[in-house]
Inverse folding.
């Protein structure tokens, strides 16, 4: 037995991983994939046949879920790809601040104040217009890989 003390320094944060591995050949259209470090929704998958030198290849065409940019990647179908953990959560809108941040009510009664108004013009006018008219709005927030963004709005009636 050794009398030495060992101290290990952890560089990783506790909690779930931002992605999980999945075999490229099993990823389908409307699924998710990480391309160039960005979480994307797959819009097209084509698989080439096995060639003289090895693997069948999957060609993915995907759209970044946060900025809408089109990205492409080609991966051997037997290799693993990173797939982001994507979550959608609904929050009730409480307030919109002058600097463009929204105040949202979480399920446990706390407020969430770290989200900006959506950059999509149609969504932005829906949120701002509905809020100014005094409607009760529920905002859907999509989160993946440490990023969050408002992706949809639902009107649940007017405030009494």
């Amino acid at each position: 037995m050794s009398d030495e003390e060992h101290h290990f320094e952890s560089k990783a944060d506790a909690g779930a991983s931002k992605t999980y591995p999945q075999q490229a050949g099993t990823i389908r259209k409307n699924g998710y994939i990480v391309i160039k470090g960005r979480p994307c929704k797959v819009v097209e998958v084509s698989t080439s046949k096995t060639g003289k030198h090895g693997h069948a290849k999957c060609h993915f065409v995907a759209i970044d879920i946060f900025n809408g940019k089109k990205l492409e990647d080609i991966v051997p179908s037997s290799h693993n790809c990173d797939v982001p953990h994507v979550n959608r959560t609904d929050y009730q809108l409480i307030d919109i601040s002058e600097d463009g941040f929204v105040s949202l009510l979480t399920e446990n009664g706390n407020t969430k104040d770290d989200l900006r108004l959506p950059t999509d013009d149609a969504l932005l006018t829906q949120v701002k217009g509905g809020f100014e008219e005094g409607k009760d709005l529920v905002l859907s927030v999509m989160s993946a890989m440490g990023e969050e963004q408002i992706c949809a709005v639902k009107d649940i009636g007017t405030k009494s």
About this structure: DSSP finds one helix and eleven strands in the chain.
